[in-house]
Amino acid sequence: MYTGRVTGAETFQRARRPEQKLRRQDDILRAARDLALRDGVRNVSLADIASRVGIHKSALLRYFETREQIFLELTAEAWRDWVRGLHDELDQARRGAADLVADVFARGFGDRPLLCDLIAHTPLNLERNVSPEAVRRYKLTSLAAVGEAAELVQAVLPALTVDEALEFVAAVASLAGAVWQIANPGPVLAELYASDPALGLACVELVPRLRRTAEILLAGLIPSRTPVDSGEDGAQ
Amino acid sequence: MYTGRVTGAETFQRARRPEQKLRRQDDILRAARDLALRDGVRNVSLADIASRVGIHKSALLRYFETREQIFLELTAEAWRDWVRGLHDELDQARRGAADLVADVFARGFGDRPLLCDLIAHTPLNLERNVSPEAVRRYKLTSLAAVGEAAELVQAVLPALTVDEALEFVAAVASLAGAVWQIANPGPVLAELYASDPALGLACVELVPRLRRTAEILLAGLIPSRTPVDSGEDGAQ
């Protein structure tokens, strides 16, 4: 497939054809994705990614600004994939099927461990070590995905307002990130969970926990429109 | 106050009296707390803490295993302080005051930025770089705090089961950690939020968001006991 090679190594580097550049970017993203799924996002360095692609770190930095930008691109990609998955399951859903919505959201995150891992890293690390342009592009993608998910929820549950559907999606997504980290402990803690009954309560399973919280949120959105209790204390 | 000095510098180090040891530990914890509140937990290294206390890193490691253990101790302390704050506001609360419970939980986290920052770091980093004994001690403390908070909720809202009160507390605590990170962006993102109206939606405020989600959860716990919708799809 390679054509158009020009003379001189340096000129070759600069004149790399757009489709080759894209292919190399894809290689880098795929390497980062594979390593993050295997070892966890927190354990994957820029050097690990470069080594897996088989290029030098400095070469990798011609394609991405930082390690964090690579993972931010993967997060954007994961949000787009997530919202496509919601369409597959909710586009034909019967109106009023709140249980189905809760289940689809719980599984939508449960089936995407990399997205869940990345959600916790995004505000903590990924959005802090990239250029304004990169973080802006990422934010527009994630906002679009959350907005589209809220529209899907509202189409199934038309009694909710757009803001309520957005509140639901934002809360479940934040919880997915937080609960996934708790449900996937490191080796020391995993061993304690297995051996110490006193710690059993701390151990959570992602999908059942998310499904239950999603059910509670969907059941509470409308009743909580007017305050569930109007008094601030018992003294009148 | 110093008494009991023995001869020889090395012997002196080893024979440090218990109350001096405790005082030094407190100095270290206070330094870590001050730095984390000023710079964010993610930006505080072991060297920063040692430098603020005025001791060498190797001396600091006689008191704590790792940077992560120092922050895990601060997290345990913050959970105990948080549950004391809940007692202050809920011990005399009128039965049925769900709005008050939502407000107290939202402010309980809003008033404790260090606890919120630490919650996100705990499963991601802090629990992964300490000994089994340290993580076990921490878990027992955090479980006790969450359990005590759930009892307080149940005392005000006796229609809830213990498990439901625990679900409420766990969800609000996880969200407090996740939302705090979003509500406290780095300088690049803060500048974008201020300058770019398209990103306005991504900007959240911790206390109103937590209060609203807490209200929704409290309103939804009982109605969602039986599924809000029993069908999985429209086809029978």
Highlighted features:
homodimer, 236 residues, mainly alpha, 11 helices, 0% strand, disordered N terminus, disordered C terminus
Task: Describe the 3D structure.
2 copies of one chain form a homodimer. By secondary structure, chain A is mainly α. Chain A has helices at 9-15, 18-39, 46-53, 57-60, 67-90, 98-110, 113-124, 132-156, 162-183, 187-195, 206-221. Chain A is globular, with a radius of gyration of 22 Å. The termini of chain A are far apart. Chains A and B meet through helix 6, helix 7, helix 8, helix 9 and helix 10 of A and helix 6, helix 7, helix 8, helix 9 and helix 10 of B.
Stretches with pLDDT under 50, minimum 5 residues of chain A: 1-12, 228-236
Please, what is the average pLDDT of chain A? 89
Strand content of chain A: under 5%
| Run of helices and strands of chain A | HHHHHHHHHHH
The major sheet of chain A is characterized as: none
Structural class of chain A: mainly alpha
Measured between the Cα atoms of the first and last residue of chain A, the distance is 81 Å
Fraction of residues in H or I helices of chain A: 55-70%
Total helix count of chain A?
11
Q: List the chains of the largest interface with their residue counts.
A: A-B, 69 and 69 residues
Radius of gyration of CA atoms of chain A, rounded to a whole number = 22 Å
Shape assignment of chain A: globular
Number of DSSP-assigned strands of chain A: 0
Seen as an oligomer or otherwise, the chain set is homodimer
